[in-house]
Amino acid sequence: MAGKTISEKILSVKSGVDARAGDVVVCTVDSAMGNDGSTPMALDYFDAMGGARVFAPERIVFALDHYAPAPSQKTTELHQRMRDFAARHGIEVREIGDGIGHQLMVESGRVTPGSLVVGADSHSVTYGALNAFATGIGSSDLAALMICGRVWLRVPESIRVTLSGELGKGVFAKDIALSLARELRADGATYQAMEFSGAGVSSLEIEDRLVLSNLVVEMGAKNGVFPADQKTFAYLGGSFAGVAADTDASYSREIVVDLEKIVPQVALPHQVDHVVAIGEAAGTPVQMVYLGTCTGGRVRDFHQARDVLKAGGGVARGVQLVVTPASRTVLETLTRDGTLADFIALGAVVVTPGCGSCCGTCGAIPGNGVNVISTANRNFKGRMGNSNASIFLASPASCAAAALTGRIVDPREIGAAAVEQEP
Amino acid sequence: MQGRARVFGDDINTDYIITSRRKRESLDPQVLRRYLFEEIDANFAATVEPGDLIVAGKNFGCGSAMEVAVTVVLGAGIKAVLAQGFSRTYFRNAVNNGLLPLICDTSRIREGDRLTIHSENGLTIYNETTGETTPAAPVPSIMMQILECGGLVPYFRRYRDFKV
For residues A308-345, b (16+ Cβ closer than 10 Å) or e, as one string? Predict the structure, then answer.
C-alpha cells in the first residue's frame, strides 16, 4: 500500500482508522476556534440541536475579532451572548483588542505539529504553517463539535508544492502565494490539501509560511500544511514530534516553484486569482493602503513595510495609510521596537487589532471610487464595506511602495530591494 | 423537486451571496433575504420566488465560510443549488442545513428554464424547457444521511453524535 501524505497521517491518528484520500472520517478535534462572525449562529444551532453541556470546553476558544470594537448596539449583543455562553461552559474568550482569532491560535500554543485544529472561519487554514491539519468549518459544525468533540471530514487528495531556492530581494511570501493563485486559479485546489515541501521551505520563516497557508483557501484548498522543522519548534518554544509525508505518498498533482524566479505580484480587482506581475499594473493610482489582516498583519510584515516607507521618505499626499496589527502581541512588539511610532509619524491611521476593515465589518471603510492596495487575502467587490471601491492585493513591501508614490509600483524599483529578508 | 432556474456565473463568493456588513444588524434569513445577491444582481431579491433553483458555474460559494450564505438562500425559499463545483465550506454548510448542493454540468441551463430534480437511480436533472437530462455527481453517504434528516440540527437531535 502506498505511503501517506501529511494530511492522511494526521487524519488517520485523529479518526483511529486508516484514512486515505477520498474517505470520509469522523475525527476528534484537538482545538477549535469560533469568532464573533460565526459563533452567534453556532449558539443558535447548539440550542436547536438540544445541546446541554460542552464537550471538552478547554479545547475551544471564542475570539471577538470581526466587530472589534463593536460598531453597533446589535454587535455588542452578539458579543455579550458569546461571553455569557462561554462563562457558563468554561470556554476561553479572547476579547476585543486581543486580535484576530487566527493569529491568537498560533500565538497561544493551541496549534502544535500533528494536531487537528478547526475554526468556524475559512482562514483557519492558516495554522497548517505549524504542521497541523487545519481547516475551516461552518457554524453548525462548530455547534456539533461543542456537543460531541468531533467533526466529519473528507480526507483530501494532496497537491505537493515543492519549493526550491530562495526569494530575491524585494520579493516576499505574499508574492509566492499570489503566483500560486495565478497558476491554480480560485478553484484549482478545491477539496484538496496543499502540502508544501522541498529545500526552499527552510528558507521561509514561520511568518512567511503563515502567509502561504492562509492563502491556500483562495485556491479552494482544504488545508495548506508545512512540514515541521527547527523554525517550527523555535516558534512554538518547545520540541514536538513533527509529521512528515512518506516518500511514496501519492499526490494528485505536483507543482514546483523556483523561489528565485518569483517576482512581485498583485491581484487585481475583484478576484484573488486575477494576478499579474506588479509591473503590469504599475502607475495605477491608489488612495488607501491597508496593512493588516490574518495574511499580512504580523511583525515581520510591518517591518518590511516600514523599511520601504522610511527609505523612501514618507506617504504620498492623498494616500490614507491604515495600520491594523493582527494581535495585541504584535501591537506590543511594534510599540517596543519603535515601529508603531514610525507609522504614527508617517501619518498612519492605527486601528484596533482585529479583522475590521478587511471584511468591512468595522474600521476604515474606503470611499467611492477609491483604489485600495492591501496586504489582505480577499479583494471581492464590496469586501471592505464599499462596493464602489476597488481592492488590489500585494505584499507589505509592495503596499508600502504604493503608499510612497501614490501609485502601484514594483517595490524593487524604489529601494525595497534594499530591504533585507530579516531572519 | 421542481423549479425555475436562476443562473449565475463562476466564482460566486459568499460575500456576493450576502455581504458581510448586512450580518451586523441581523442573522435572520427573512431579513437578510432582502439583500440576497445584492452586490451582483440588484434585482434578484425582488424577483426570487419560493421554489426557484440556483444554477451556477464553477466554485460556487467560495470565500468566507459564513453559514448565513446558506441560510439566506433557504430563507428565500430556494431548496437546491446546481453548480459545476462548490467551495468545500459552502458544500458543507449546505448539507448541514438541508440545502441540496448538486454538482453537475450546468453549462446548457438558461435563466428561467424549468428544471426537475429526480432521485431515482441517482440524482438527475431534467430540463423541461430543453428536454435534456443531466446526471449529478453522487453525494457521499454521511452527507446524504444529514440531508435526508433535513440538516445537522435534526440529525443531531436524533443521533447526538456522528454515525459513520
Answer: bbbebeebbeebbbbbbbbbbbbbebbeeeebbebbee
